Amino acid sequence: MSPSDALFEIGLTYKAAKICLADPHILLSQLSTEHCQYMAGHHQLGHQNFNERYKICREKLGLNCAEIAAMSWRSDYVENPQDEFLLSVARQMWDSWRQSREHWNIATEEWKFVGGDMIQAKDGTWYASILSGK
């Protein structure tokens, strides 16, 4: 199981999370992965450079987009995480989004396309991002 697969599998357990029902889009997935790499590389959660991702969505796909991002609790770095570990990390992300009105509003909205990923920083912290468009 990939980190992205775990993220969406857990997302589907939250019945209100309509974002998980959108069609996967390779460009949105790529942009989400790049943002996760940025967050993990800088050890900083946020929506850094979102305007650039939004511009790409508008210009290349004609979509308005939104983004949710989260980070896990720090743990030991895991070289090849097993499925259960990835699902546990993904649940932390969704629990975090559930506690944020702004993030949860995005997660419960209907979207046409979606892409997302989770990446672990060297200190063991995981970073997740889901980019959605319509």
What can be said about this structure in brief?
The protein is of the alpha+beta class and 134 residues long. The protein has one domain: CAP (Pathogenesis-related Protein p14a, 3-Layer(aba) Sandwich), CATH 3.40.33. It has helices at residues 3-11, 26-42, 50-61, 83-98, 101-107, and strands spanning 23-24, 65-71, 113-120, 126-133.
Can you walk me through this structure?
Helix 1 (3-11) packs across helix 4 (83-98). The protein has 134 residues and is α+β, with helices and mostly antiparallel strands. The protein has helices at 3-11, 26-42, 50-61, 83-98, 101-107; strands at 23-24, 65-71, 113-120, 126-133. The protein has a single domain (3-133), classed as CAP (Pathogenesis-related Protein p14a, 3-Layer(aba) Sandwich), CATH 3.40.33.10. The model has no long low-confidence stretch (mean pLDDT 94). The protein contains five helices and four strands, in the order H-E-H-H-E-H-H-E-E. 41% of the residues are buried. Strand 3 and strand 4 (126-133) form a beta hairpin. A four-stranded mixed β-sheet has the order 1-3-4-2, sandwiched between helices.
